[in-house]
Design a protein that fits this description.
Helix content: 25-40%
Order of helices and strands: HEEHEEH
Number of strands: 4
Largest sheet: 4 strands, antiparallel
Number of helices: 3
Shape: globular
CATH superfamily: Transcriptional coactivator/pterin dehydratase
Strand order of the largest sheet: 1-2-4-3
Radius of gyration: 13 Å
Strand content: 15-25%
Length: 93
């Protein structure tokens, strides 16, 4: 099982992901697009990196907004896996 990060480690890593916020035991980001089609296109771009990482985000879609939440469910909170995937997702347009 992947090791949970300490609160200090979480806060330090979060500094390097300005579009993401830490809320309880999740790392969250909301992206806004021109319309629903662009939002879905973005979500489809998340599939490959999530599969490669073996780590899958929770995704909420509301018309042109996509909310991504990351947590390592089997570890019960945030791990390095969450920050690694957040970094990859941040680079996707």
């Amino acid at each position: 099982m992947t090791q949970l990060l300490t609160e200090a480690e979480i806060q330090e890593k979060a500094k390097h992901l300005p579009d993401w916020t830490v809320k309880e035991s999740t790392l969250q980001c909301t992206r806004t697009f021109k319309d629903f089609i662009r939002a879905i296109e973005f979500v489809n771009k998340l599939v490959e990196p999530a599969e490669l990482a073996g780590h899958h985000p929770d995704i909420e879609i509301a018309y042109n907004k996509v909310k991504i939440s990351l947590t390592t469910h089997d570890a019960g909170g945030l791990t390095q896996k969450d920050f690694d995937l957040a970094k990859v997702i941040s680079q996707i347009n």
